[in-house]
Structure prediction request, 353 residues.
Amino acid sequence: MLRPNQSSVPQRVAIFGASGHTGRFAVAELLHRGITPIAVGRNLAALADAGFPRNEVILRQASVDDAPSLDRAFEGASAVINCAGPFLETADAVAAAALRCGIHYLDVSAEQSSTLETLENFDSAARTAGVAVVPSMSFYGGFADLLATAAMGDWEYADTIDVMIGLDSWHPTRGTRITGAKNTAERLAVADGKLVAVSSPRSEKDWLFEDPFGHQAMVEVPFSEIVLISRHLKVTELHTWLNRLALDDIHNAATPAPKAADYLGRSLQQFVVEVVSARDGDTRSIRARGRDIYAFSATLICEAAERLLDGRFTTAGALSPGEAFDSSELLSALTPNHITLQMASTAQPLDQF
Prediction:
């Protein structure tokens, strides 16, 4: 463990893009954990209209085009959570400001290009500053990396890793639609141990999830977990699959944004993620189920932020979630309130995590 926090002074975490859909969930999650949020955005009026509890949330204005404003906004924080996409437009500026302030950086990017650049550009500076830079700590990206790391266990390599994602619906936020329209880079998978462009048209396969998802038609749709997993796990073939039902939703311009269905603001959306690793005829798999990918991303990144504040991370530098944290321990901390987990192998039947 690194730099354990023994101070009795309340911790502060800045959230860039706090008035957005995921940002609001992150503010609420930090408050729930007893951490003071510094809500940062380009527009103070939008922050004021977000309805954050007065005297509990600090509001500050900053823009990625104004580096000094970011430095002022992050003053007094111990970490920065970036919830403002597209991350190819924000991650570099926000991460650079975090390092100037000597504090940790996390984001919820699902963009492969942004994640690659963040890992490559900030590792040396983060090590020098003694802080962690952890991109893509979100449902798409870091979650699958943590699951794959836990499933691999003591295996030193895998022949194949398949990430199977099932959603019963996908009502995209405005930010998701904007990012999708701008994210035109080639998607990458791993073949023969190397990052390669996914062929077009994309591969398809069928997958049988447990009820209520059942049989689903799947399409290869790699997100940032490909970059994260391949960074620290040795695997010959690595692919991510998303059910066609979810793709049809997000490709339909008429699909509305998420609608709150409980007092926490979560939608009714259900998700399942299965990660299957195989080598030499043996398999190891892990299955996770939960609700609302946006709300869950906020919970996941706030759990990571709290661990960074407490010194529960492996080392300084630019790291994938599976490198930065004890994957099994972090995932266990999210059960049973946020996800359910089960593991199985060819040598052992499915068991509760």
Q: What stands out?
A: Residues 112-129 form the longest helix (18 residues).
